[in-house]
Amino acid sequence: MGRSAPPSTSSPELRRKRTAAPPPEPPTPRRFCSMDDVMRRSRPVDAPPPVARAREAIYDAVLCDTCGSGDRDDELLLCDRCDRGRHTFCLRPIAAKVPIGPWFCPDCAPPAKPVKRFPMKQTKIVDFFRIQKDDQNGVPGKCRLSQDVRKRRKRSLVMHKKRRRILPFVPTEDRARRLKQMASLATALTSSKTEFSNELTYIPNMAPISSNQARLEEGGMQILPKEDKETIELCRTMQQRGECPPLLVVFDSCEGFTVQADADIKDMTFIAEYAGDVDYLENRASDDCDCIMTLLLTADPSQRLVVCPDKRGNVSRFISGINNYTPDGKKKQNVKCVRYDIDGESHVLLVACRDIACGEKLYYDYNGYEHAYPTHHFL
After folding, report:
1. How confident is the model over 256-313, as pLDDT tens digits?
2. What confidence category does residue 137 fall into, taking pLDDT thresholds of 50, 70 and 90?
3. CA atoms of 168 and 154, how far apart (whole Å)
4. How far apart are CA 176 and CA 155, in angstroms?
5. To the nearest whole percent, how much of the chain has pLDDT over 70?
6. Dist. CA 288–CA 302, nearest whole Å
7. Backbone torsions φ then ψ of 174, nearest 5 degrees
8. pLDDT at position 312
9. Average pLDDT of 187-200?
10. Cβ(77)–Cβ(96) under 8 Å?
11. What is the SS3 assignment for 148?
12. pLDDT digit string, tens, across residues 197-224
């Protein structure tokens, strides 16, 4: 029987064998003089592997693409696509804290959608803000309290200077202008995917209303005087009827949505209540929302409450905080944030702390009480 022919040199199997890489050479044996020498030259048990050490060295050399500095690495963000760095305070708008989850730099992030303006249709605005309808056509009637507001303001002006009472806001009389003001707020809320709410809301699986007891405030909380309480109730009634504070929400490329006065506002005028969902502070310890407000500071840290306007809120969430670390930043402040005991519950009120001219942006001291929020990078 004849021998079988040798395999063809052009077969795929043989080609793969010929082109395969040669096996790696075994490592050269290392010589040690003693056990002490072995222990001295060995790698610690908890030392990272070589690849991890190389990766850490790369990250340690990352610089901010905006300012060129590698300082403040605790506030230096790394893009999940290009690995380039940006400081939270070098971003525009500024990032209040390191975001949770993936982050992409402005060059790698998908293009931002232009702000879609809310339609300036009266019916849509009435439905959006749930304005009470007075007449048969569904159009909100002119607030009958406006005249009373003006009379009350003139009557209490002298007393205001002495007793520093809160004044009700004076809504814009021009209905078209008022619609523009409300449309600007509706634009900001819809762009932020936030539902309008002018009051504190209590949601299941968050803090219940029974937890908001002003008497639990550590050191006590000031009680809102009767006259000021009547003023707040008057303002709430006006807002339910479609008369809002003379404020315009505008978009700024450096600060995002901001609020500016659309008319002259007197000192001590009520601006808004800080509204949103009430939750325990410990539930929001890792929350990347940049507009959480302290509501109740109790001796027990587990019972401390905050207002979270990320799902529901009003114009207060768009008022910017000042840089309270510098004298120039303090000069910007024209609104103060005060917490009051109202009928046994804690509420946060925003009140003008000086005369505000038409067109001036509104700023308040975010650290008005506990000085815990990092505002040294605010504009």
Report:
1. 899 999 999 999 999 999 999 999 999 987 777 778 899 999 999 999 999 999 999 9
2. very low
3. 11
4. 29
5. 73
6. 19
7. -70, 115
8. 95
9. 95
10. no
11. helix
12. 999 999 999 999 999 999 999 999 999 9
Top CATH class, 58-112: alpha beta
CA atoms of 60 and 352, how far apart (whole Å): 46
Identify which of 281, 310, 289, 267 has the alpha carbon closest to the alpha carbon of residue 370. Answer: 281
Is cis: bond before 23, omega within 30 of 0? no
Q: Token match 């990766």: residue?
A: 55
Q: For residues 12 and 195, give the distance between their C-alpha atoms in angstroms, rounded to a whole number.
A: 66
Residue that has been written with the tokens 């940006």 in this structure: 86
Within the chain, all domains assigned CATH 2.170.270.10 are found at: 122-131+165-364
Name the amino acid, one letter, at 64.
C
User: Could you confirm whether domain 122-131+165-364 is CATH 3.50.50.100?
Assistant: no
Question: How many alpha carbons fall within 13 Å on the CB side of residue 153?
Answer: 19
Report which of 309, 304, 259 is spatially closest to residue 289, judged by C-alpha positions. Answer: 309
- Using CA atoms, how far residue 266 sits from 112, 179, 189, 256, 300, in Å, is 37, 22, 26, 26, 39
Residues 6 or more apart in contact with residue 322 via CB below 8 angstroms: 329, 330, 332, 333, 363, 364, 365, 366, 375, 378
Q: Which pLDDT score is estimated for 13?
A: 42
Specify the 3-state DSSP secondary structure of 85.
strand
- CATH 3.30.40.10 in the chain is located at 58-112
Q: How far is residue 276's CA from residue 289's CA, in Å, rounded to a whole number?
A: 12
